[in-house]
Amino acid sequence: MSMAPHHPLIVIVDDDTNVRDSLRGLMRSLGYEAEAFGSVEALRAAALPVRIDCLLLDIRLPGQDGLDYYEELVRAGGAPPAVFISGHASAEIKERACRAGAIACFLKPARGQDLIDAIAKAIAGGGVRPGEAASGAAPP
Which domains does the chain have, with CATH numbers? Predict the structure, then answer.
């Protein structure tokens, strides 16, 4: 019995509807599954039952911001690889994202190929479910 191929899941969290829809369309055009949410709270409410291969997070979001959420996942031991994209990423924020283990942190608008390359790198590292420790995975 053959299993269906695994299509990496990219979860996008951005409060800008146009950016969110564009990123979801780009990810799907590359053959990835993509789910998009306008806030961390909306993502939590979705209770995704599947493996997340990469989180694509805005930093400034309504409610909990993307970097605080990611740091929470890291502390819990279940952080999927993450790529941050923001219109407000200072040097300090970029450094904080890197310390948390982010693959990359881009200013909007990000160059498409740079974003695609960072997501491919995240996927190559393997994904986990939020709240679930990665077995034997070294921090990025």
Answer: 9-124 (3.40.50.2300)
Residues 118-134: tens digit of each pLDDT: 999 999 875 444 444 33
Integer distance in angstroms from the first to the last C-alpha of the chain? 35
SS percent in the chain: helix, strand, coil, step 5: 40, 20, 45
Enumerate residues 6+ apart whose C-beta is below 8 A from 34: 9, 10, 11, 12, 23, 24, 27, 28
Q: How far apart are CA 137 and CA 27, in angstroms?
A: 25
* pLDDT value of position 5: 58
Do residues 35 and 12 touch, judged by C-beta distance below 8 A? yes
Q: State how far the Cα of 68 lies from the Cα of 34, in Å rounded to an integer.
A: 22
Q: Which is more confidently placed, 49 or 132?
A: 49
DSSP 24-61: HHHHHHTT-EEEEESSHHHHHHH---S-BSEEEEESS-
Q: What is the pLDDT of residues 22-40, one digit of tens each?
A: 999 999 999 999 999 999 9
